[in-house]
């Protein structure tokens, strides 16, 4: 058989094309909306340790797209579902794709982060992940943490729900948050995140609610005098992967990817706990007054906020409302 330069060139081009295709198939593209700097970014830390483990133990490569480089969380979820992106780390957007996940936002459900971890890393979290896989085509490999949300305001210290009467609070444009603040006696006011500083500065609203790290890192403590560490909603991160892509991996690769995601989720939790503790100290040092409600006071908050939210969710979820009862049972067992 005779080989010409032309045939050799064509063969070389085919081999290179195939090699490129294989290389692309072996790349996991993972995206999130947080900064990339790992010491202060929970998602940033999670993505980086995931990459290090996967690249160190397999032939797969991992590309990280932080800080919303590929879009907001809703867009990242869509890209994973469409196969344009292999993985994403998201929080609130998950409940839009898988409504059952919204039960995690029932206020005052988790007494502490460790209780939340026990629930999410146990049978309930596994079952929720399987349900969301069926609903979305995305496999939940692990859970991370965005943190507990707390109220701040510039009018008075909040110790009980009675102290919220008449105060306007900026909330996300999500019905669950409207129900929660209304149940507590406040006046919920949906305002875009980008407009929040101006709304606080001009008195359009009296207060807002966010995790401590978000409050501090965005300078909101400079516009607010009081913070109540009521931890009304615990926000979890979902480390999700396209199940179609996951099934294309070898069994050995799946094992490493799944294990790396669990380590990544725990890393994100640790960074979140660190930044939250640092944030409390930082805002206090800059003059913010912090109040930690007692167990009896937190029970008063829960008694006011939970019924309205649970009733709303039962109507929204329909047949999936059973997830509310499953979560409550899992929390009771964990506590």
From TrEMBL:
GO process terms (BP): transmembrane transport
Signal peptide: 1-25
Pfam families: DctP (PF03480)
InterPro entries, per database record: DctP_fam, TRAP_DctP, TRAP_DctP_sf
Keywords: Periplasm, Receptor, Signal, Transport
Localization terms from the record: Periplasm
GO cellular component: outer membrane-bounded periplasmic space
Organism domain of life: Bacteria
Family: Belongs to the bacterial solute-binding protein 7 family.
PANTHER family, alphabetized: C4-DICARBOXYLATE-BINDING PROTEIN DCTB, PTHR33376
Protein name, as recorded: Tripartite ATP-independent transporter DctP family solute receptor
């Amino acid at each position: 058989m005779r080989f010409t330069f032309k045939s050799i060139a064509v063969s070389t081009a085919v081999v290179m094309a195939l090699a490129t295709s294989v290389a692309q198939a072996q790349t996991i593209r993972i995206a999130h909306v947080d900064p990339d700097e790992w010491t202060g970014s929970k998602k940033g830390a999670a993505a980086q340790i995931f990459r290090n483990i996967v690249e160190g133990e397999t032939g797969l490569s991992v590309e990280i797209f932080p800080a919303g480089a590929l879009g907001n969380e809703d867009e990242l979820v869509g890209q994973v579902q469409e196969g344009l992106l292999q993985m994403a780390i998201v929080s609130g957007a998950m409940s839009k794709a898988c409504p059952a996940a919204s039960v995690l936002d029932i206020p005052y459900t988790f007494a502490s982060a460790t209780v939340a971890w026990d629930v999410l890393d146990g049978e309930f979290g596994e079952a929720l992940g399987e349900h969301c896989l069926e609903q979305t085509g995305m496999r939940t490999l692990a859970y991370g943490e965005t943190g507990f949300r707390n109220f701040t305001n510039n009018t008075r210290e909040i110790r009980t729900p009675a102290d919220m009467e008449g105060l306007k609070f900026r909330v996300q444009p999500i019905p669950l948050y409207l129900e929660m603040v209304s149940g507590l006696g406040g006046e919920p006011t949906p305002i875009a995140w980008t407009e929040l500083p101006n709304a606080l500065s001009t008195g359009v609203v009296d207060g807002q609610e966010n995790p401590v790290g978000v409050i501090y890192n965005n300078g909101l403590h400079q516009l607010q005098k009081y913070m109540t560490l009521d931890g009304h909603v615990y926000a979890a991160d979902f480390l999700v992967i396209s199940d179609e892509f996951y099934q294309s991996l070898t069994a050995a690769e799946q094992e490493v990817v799944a294990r790396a995601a669990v380590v990544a989720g725990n890393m994100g939790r640790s960074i979140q706990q660190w930044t939250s503790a640092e944030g409390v100290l930082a805002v206090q040092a800059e003059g913010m007054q912090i109040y930690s409600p007692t167990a009896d006071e937190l029970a008063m908050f829960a008694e006011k906020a939970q019924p309205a939210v649970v009733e709303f969710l039962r109507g929204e979820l329909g047949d999936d409302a059973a997830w509310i009862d499953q979560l409550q049972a899992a929390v009771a067992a964990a506590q």
